[in-house]
Design goal:
Layout (H helix, E strand, L loop, with lengths): L29 H6 L4 H9 L1 H11 L11 H10 L6 E6 L8 H8 L1 H15 L3 E7 L3 H16 L15 E7 L8 H8 L23 E5 H13 L1 H5 L9 E8 L2 E8 L4 H5 L10 E6 L5 E4 L9 H7 L7 E6 L4 H15 L5 H19 L6 H14 L4 H5 L2 H9 L1 H10 L1 E2 L8 E2 L11
Bound molecules: flavin mononucleotide and iron/sulfur cluster.
Length: 447
């Protein structure tokens, strides 16, 4: 599948995709990448030393792009400071959201930024083994990455003596195939160990007890791709981009009636500016943004001035999640979309904890009834209670985010939900056999 990178305003900084134009003709050619600046960050890290590299990444304020926004420097420091005979770093490029291709698109456009960031992380925390995880069904990507890693080793950027540092870092590419939950870090770790995979209770965090019970850093591939830039340009240059609490840039995948594609955006840019990259709702009226992928939340048009940062998006009722933003226009039924997302979340729950396993199934059934016109009295209150209780008893982050779809509908689209639950009408005319409010049905939905 080809994914388009969107043009962004000239004033917007470019960090993650900075080299992609220069190497577009030959993205898998190491020499071309080196001519365009690849592995300069690794050399800077080696000059700075392991402790200095962690300090630099910490000072940059880089937060994980895998969804939760955990400070990367803290993670590296924790892993490095836990005594161990071995440590590991895992680049999480699993890309669990089936509708989002950010990780694979970045890896295909500039694999070197991820490989370099992974080697820098391993060097910094004292890990001699580093894993690069991608989806196993993308066999072409797996074999191209294996060849790229071999080229990097041949050139001395990994292997026995990383960039003349005397440190050993072996990079191993693994294609893994499984459910949505496999993207969660503790599941990923168990899968790498060849064990049956379900999320582990944390703490202990992987930085204390991870792969084969050794301190392990798990970072998203986009997080790691920012690291070489930080080492080359300095922590302060990175911290000056974005916001104080969320510096740097992120990759977002946009889909709407006007267009689709992946864009690099400075954190803190407004949702209005970001969605305008694909023309907003185009000729239609924007109704909601589905922010965060299948476990994301629905934000109304009045939230368009929300800055795209981990905290602001969470406070608004969604999460950064997979980096997906879908533009839903007036033809979409938000209750129906929430039903689809809630069913996805219920289907993906691994079943280890009862509030998630049973609660999400009940929520999904309430959403089914709402769209089928078979609502029971008390469904609205039950949905409210369940959404709260499931999130409050979270064993893993899935439980915290899987209820966002319905809880954001309760927060912003209550009247549309009540139309379904109390009046058996679907204002958008999407749900049948529910009556259509105010006339003819229009089944089109952009999301
Ligand atoms: C259900 C679920 C699925 C996840 N899928 C992914 C994924 O596909 N890729 C990813 O990087 N992180 C995913 N995460 C987050 C990871 O557990 C972990 O926080 C992340 O890889 C850490 O990297 P970061 O600190 O660079 O963000 C998922 C979390 C959950 C709860
Ligand atoms: S919260 Fe849900 S997905 Fe997470 S471990 Fe429990 S049952 Fe599995």
């Amino acid at each position: 599948m080809t994914t388009t990178f969107l043009a962004t305003p000239p004033a917007w900084p470019v960090i993650l995709l900075g080299r992609t134009k220069a190497i577009a003709a030959e993205p898998w050619d190491l020499d071309a990448a080196v001519r365009a600046g690849a592995f300069e960050g690794l050399k800077a890290a080696v000059r700075t030393g392991a402790t200095g590299t962690i300090a630099e990444v910490g000072a940059s304020g880089l937060r994980g792009r895998g969804g939760a926004g955990h400070p990367t420097g803290d993670k590296w420091r924790a892993a490095a400071s836990n005594p161990a005979d071995q440590r590991y770093v895992i680049a999480n490029g699993y890309g669990a959201d089936p509708a989002t291709q950010i990780d694979s698109a970045l890896l295909a456009a500039d694999p070197w930024s991820v490989i370099e960031g992974l080697v820098i992380a391993a060097f910094a925390v004292g890990a001699s083994e580093a894993y690069l995880i991608v989806r196993g069904d993308d066999t072409e990507l797996v074999s191209r990455l294996e060849a790229a890693v071999a080229d990097a080793e041949e050139a001395g950027f990994s292997g026995d003596d990383v960039a003349g540092s005397g440190h050993r870092v072996d990079v191993i590419v693994r294609g893994l195939q499984g459910s949505y939950m496999l993207g969660e870090e503790t599941v990923l770790i168990r899968a790498l160990e060849g064990r049956r995979a379900a999320p582990d209770q944390r703490p202990p965090y992987p930085t204390e007890r991870g792969l084969w019970d050794r301190p392990t850093v798990v970072n998203n591939v986009v997080t790691l791709a920012a690291v070489p830039w930080i080492l080359t340009h300095g922590a302060q240059a990175f911290a000056a981009i974005g916001t104080r609490d969320a510096p740097g840039t992120a990759l977002v995948q946009l889909r709407g009636p006007g267009g689709a594609g992946i864009a690099e955006v400075p954190l803190g840019a407004s949702l209005a500016d970001i969605t305008s990259l694909v023309g907003g709702a185009g000729a239609h009226t924007l109704k909601a943004l589905v922010v965060g992928g299948p476990t994301g939340g629905f934000l109304p048009a009045t939230a368009l001035d929300t800055p795209y940062t981990f905290a602001a998006i969470r406070d608004a009722g969604a999460h950064v999640g997979s980096g997906s933003i879908v533009i839903a226009d007036e033809r979409a039924c938000i209750v129906d979309l929430a039903r689809l997302l809630t069913r996805f979340s219920a289907d993906q729950a691994c079943g280890k904890s009862i509030p998630c396993r049973i609660g999400l199934r009940r929520l999904s059934e309430i959403a089914d009834r709402a769209t089928e016109g078979t609502t029971r009295s008390g469904d609205a209150q039950l949905a409210d209670d369940l959404a709260h209780d499931i999130a409050a008893s979270a064993l893993c982050d899935h439980e915290r985010t899987a209820t966002l779809a319905l809880s954001s509908v309760l927060r912003y689209f209550r009247s549309e939900l009540d139309d379904h639950l109390l009046r058996s009408t679907c204002p958008a005319g999407v749900c049948t056999p529910i009556a259509v409010a105010g006339g003819a049905a229009s089944r089109g939905a952009s999301a």
